[in-house]
Amino acid sequence: MSRIVIVSNRTPGKGPAAGGLAVALRKVLSERDGFWFGWSGKLVDQPGNEARMEDIDGLQVAQLDLAREDHHAYYAGFSNSILWPSFHLRLDLATIESHWYEGYRRVNQQFARALMPLLKPDDIVWVHDYHLIPLASELRQLGARNRIGFYLHIPFPTADALYAIPHHEELMRDLARYDLVGMQAKRDVAAFTEFAEHQAPSTFGGHQAQPIDFSRTEIDAFPIGSDPAAFARLAASPAATKMVHRMKRALGDQCLILGVDRLDYSKGLPQRVEAYEKLLANNARLRRNVHLLQVAPPSRDTIKEYQETSDTLDAMCGHVMGRFAEPDWQPLTYVKRAYGQPSLAGLYRLARVALVTPLRDGMNLVAHEFIGAQDPANPGVLVLSRFAGAAEIFHDALLVNPFDTDETAEALRIALDMPLEERKQRWRSLMDAAEEHNVDDWAINFIERLAPGTARKAGSTRD
Ligand code: G6P
């Protein structure tokens, strides 16, 4: 049976514990032969060309050190100051330094050179996310003939935003070197197809570039999910229950409104606080009866736009406190730190409302995990941005336009007033959708499409 090789910038055990990518893929490798390949987290002056294979909690992980300078251009530069804002349609927040592309390319070449000697001819290679778009091209240049798939965890941009990215044509040519490109949502596949069918290559110096041939690359939507049953168990675990008791003591009878997001401008956090402010302003009866808890672990904080988002949020939370707090009541708590999955599961279970209101998001696994963690006898309500990939799946959430803070405030009010019967009905439908889109099937479907007949273990009873 072919091995699976997963490649991503971060490897498991490194980086923020709450990352949906790590949680989802750890499971794939725990059930089959293969290894995970990625950056070691170490920056050095003179990186070698070899990866170190290590056993991390039973997973084989091959890790590579990167050169300090290249890493800056590759990660904070091209990946997170150009690709991330453009793919999230925030060209106003992009910083375009075109030389970053060279560092991005060099790191992808380095990944390919270190990965190539570890590959067997029939290994299936599954590359993850925007940091590594050129990897298949680089591997193929070194002679790899393996089946190679790419999965984009973030949204695919509209054509105009794509054209604003330096070297976008090369990046699209790179995507055409994969056998399969998976996206989160139908809207992403539509945007990709729009580009592929109406390519308008740039004409520098009068040279019309050759149209890109996508005929050997399959493109489809594979919406990622979570493991809702595992989240349900976690939410009833002693660690989660401890968090529930702790919060209940602090909240008394107040209803908890919860947000959990990386501190990222794509998550719509200032708009969310503004919607909460409007809720309190428009509904005096709710003051002293509700409490917003926003958990926002810091992210990519060497990048100016992230620091600014953090400052804006500090100011807005302070503003709402000043406007509504009383000596014995605070309208909100804002914590800039990461919590483990058990504590989060406890918070999700206790929350009457989850506010998942990104301005644009690939999928958003917080929505999935919140649903999994609910008490079926007394479930909370999901207020969900229509611009999250999750909105294509969770039709019975209260869908909102996160830019319209009046609408979000009104959805919050409706969620808080929703009778138990309606909450139960909506939750049942959301849970069915979360179960249908679970992460195990996501991985099996992708691998099966990439290399038919290889996704299932011998003796597996799955059909
Ligand atoms: C998003 C991306 C992931 C990334 C994660 C955390 O979910 O799709 O690829 O790992 O954010 O961001 P970071 O920059 O800390 O890896």
How would you summarize what this structure contains?
The chain is built from 16 helices and 14 strands. The chain is of the alpha/beta class and 463 residues long.
Characterization of this structure:
The structure is a single chain. The protein has 463 residues and is of the alpha/beta class. Helix content is 42%, strand content 17%. The chain has 16 helices and 14 strands. The strands form 2 sheets. An 8-stranded mixed β-sheet has the order 3-4-2-1-5-6-7-8, sandwiched between helices. Helix 3 crosses helix 4, helix 8 crosses helix 13 and helix 9 packs across helix 12. The chain is globular and about 65 Å long. The protein starts with a strand and ends in a 13-residue tail after the last helix. 47% of the residues are buried. The C terminus is likely disordered.
Structural classification: alpha/beta
Largest sheet: 8 strands, mixed
Mean pLDDT: 93
Unreliable stretches: 15-19, 458-463
- Described by the principal axes of the CA atoms, the overall outline is globular
Amount of helix? 40-55%
Tell me the Rg in angstroms: 23 Å
Strand content: 15-25%
Bound molecules: 6-O-phosphono-alpha-D-glucopyranose
GO biological process, one term: trehalose biosynthetic process
Protein name: Trehalose-6-phosphate synthase
Family: Belongs to the glycosyltransferase 20 family.
Pfam families: Glyco_transf_20
